[in-house]
Each structure stands twice: as C-alpha cells, then as structure tokens.
Amino acid sequence: MAEKTYKEKIDRIRERTDILYLKSPNSPLTPEQKVDFKGLSYFPMDEKYRFIVELKEFENQEEVAIPTTLNEIRHYTRFASIEFEIDGQMHKLTVFKPLEGDYYYLPFKDTTTGEETYYVGRYLEIERVSKGKYEVDFNQAYNPLCAYNDLWNCTKVPEENILQTPIPAGLKKYDDYRAS
Q: Cβ(147)–Cβ(175) under 8 Å?
C-alpha cells in the first residue's frame, strides 16, 4: 500500500526506529536500557522543517578534522553547503562526506540543543530527490549514538553548523523520556 500522507511516512519511520532500538542486536541501547524502554520521544511532525535544496558543492573540498566525544579525531571532506528559510530567515549549513564512504553527513545544533535536544547536537541524512535536488527533513533529525550511553563515540558538530534558531523537529534528547 502506498503511503497516503507525509505524516504517515514519518509515523512509520518513527515506529520502525522504536522497534529497532528495542529488538535489534545493533541497537545503541544496552540490554538494561531495553528493559524499561517505552519508545523514543519526538517533536510533533511539522512540514515547515522539510526542504528541497540544492547541494552547492565547494570548489575547494578540503579535508577537515572533527573531534569526537571521546577526544578522537575523524576526517571528513567539507563537501557542500545548503541553504533554507525558516520564518523568513535564511540559514546555511555545511554538508560533509566521510573520506571513505558515499553518503552525506549533516551534523547540526540549534537553540534547542542542550535543552530539549541532545547537547552534542543531532544528525541528518540527506536524500537525493532529483538531479541536483536533495531533501533535508529535520523531522527525521536523530541523535548520535552517544546520546544513549557512554559506549559510543560520536563526531561533534563543527562551529559552522550551529544555528541561532530553534529547530523543534525530529528526536528529542533521551533523558526526557528515559524510564525511571
């Protein structure tokens, strides 16, 4: 059956994520965390935070070293930028590519970071929708794995990807709904 609405698509993604976190052997949750796991907590879905953008590739795609939560360094290519508008204000983020791998890495922080969302920031996957056009959907923003426990090592968000606006979309921080 085809998806009827965008909201149904997001709801299905969220349901699948909860099942994977609970049942997958590759879950970021420890067995102890799974015992009382009641599902992840999300902001309400809002299409205002879904964009079709151009990936504006940098002429000089330099290699950058980005620190991790365990004080290691990961290397990425500073690949492109995207621009989008929220409430009449333009915003710009940098898209990174791993040195080995064929995906785009879009880490970001916004003014919800550390309050409603995880203090290290959140990540996004960028999906190609047509030649030169990509979907950037903050409703699908997710926490790095280190948000769930200290067994994970996560790349921090570079300064250039810190937004001075709230993005109340996607996953909230894990502590907001951890079973007591």
A: no
Integer Cα distance of 59 and 47 in angstroms: 32
Side chain identity, residue 166: P
- Taking the alpha carbons at both ends of the chain, their separation in whole angstroms is 39
Q: How confident is the model over 48-57, as pLDDT tens digits? A: 999 999 999 9
Q: Are 41 and 171 in contact (CB under 8 A)?
A: yes
Token code pair at residue 67: 């620190």
d(CA 152, CA 28): 8
Which DSSP helix (H) or strand (E) runs through 14?
Answer: helix 6-23
Listed in sequence order, the residues at least 6 apart from 96 whose beta carbon sits closer than 8 Å to its beta carbon are 64, 66, 76, 77, 78, 79, 104, 105, 106, 107, 158
Residues 68-85: tens digit of each pLDDT: 999 999 999 999 999 999
**The whole model's pTM is what?**
0.91
Closest CA to 172 of 48, 47, 43, 15: 43
Residue 165, amino acid: T
**Closest alpha carbon to 75 in 86, 84, 64, 83:** 64
**Six-digit token pair at 31?**
């067995």
Question: Does the pLDDT value for residue 171 go beyond 80?
Answer: yes
